Every structure is written in C-alpha cells, then in structure tokens.
Amino acid sequence: MTASAIGLTVPDFSLPATHGATFTLAAQRGHPVVLYFYPKDSTPGCTVEAQQFRDLHGEFARLGCAIFGISRDSLKSHESFKSKQCLPFELLVDADEMACVMFDVIKMKSMYGKQVRGIERSTFLIDKDGVLRNEWRKVKAEGHAAEVLATLHALT
Length: 156
Fold this sequence. Notes:
This protein has 5 helices and 9 strands. By secondary structure, it is an alpha/beta fold. The model has no long low-confidence stretch (mean pLDDT 93).
C-alpha cells in the first residue's frame, strides 16, 4: 500500500497471532483497526511504542478500535514481549514478510554504519469497512500512539 492507497479497501490477509490465534483482516470488519509495524521486540523504540499503545488502549477500545502490532519476530518472542510489557492487544508474526511487502514497510536502513534491510516503523488506520483512512511512515515512537488516537477521534 502506498499513500495513494488511502481511501481504498485493504486486501484481506491472515497472520499468526499471540495466544494461539490467527488474525484475519476480514474478521475485523465492523470496527476500526490500527496496524502498527515495528522493527523488533524488546528494543528501546519498539518498547516505547508498544507501551504507549498499551497505555492508550482503553481510549482506543472506547472508540471500538482494535490494535495489532506486526513484526518479523517469532511467536515465542512476541509472547515474551507481550507478557513483559502487559500488552492488552495481540502481536502478529510476519516471518515471510507478506504483510510487510503489502504495506511497503521493508526498507534499507542504516544501523551502526551498515545498510540493513528491515521494517520502517509505520502505522495504518483502517476503518470499519476495511478502507485505509490514514498512514504514518518513518514514525518516531514517542507520542505516536496519541497522534493515531487523535486521528481516530477525528474520523469518528
């Protein structure tokens, strides 16, 4: 998906989720959904982002919005991260990068002076009908969840 995809229906996809569940986007119809892609469990920026979505989860829930975090980490890693951070939402495993490619979040990044291929922190807000309403790319973790919540408020 690219910025030009705003206003279009997001294609259905399925991914393994924490707690032995399977996430399917089509099953989320009827309420808004936040999908946030992050590079790696238990890293500083990813922890801050997850904690802020956790801390605002009740407000998202009051608006009927479900939150899902997505990375290439294993289910075991996700379960540990979710437990350690007391996350009230599921984390999705995209080991084969299917959703990452679909949302165009795999980028070449510089890490310690080396070019590496990884997930660019990005978030997508999908409405109750499955239509992409907003996207954030090159996200800075601090304050991001509040920005997404403000946009959700404006849409509802």
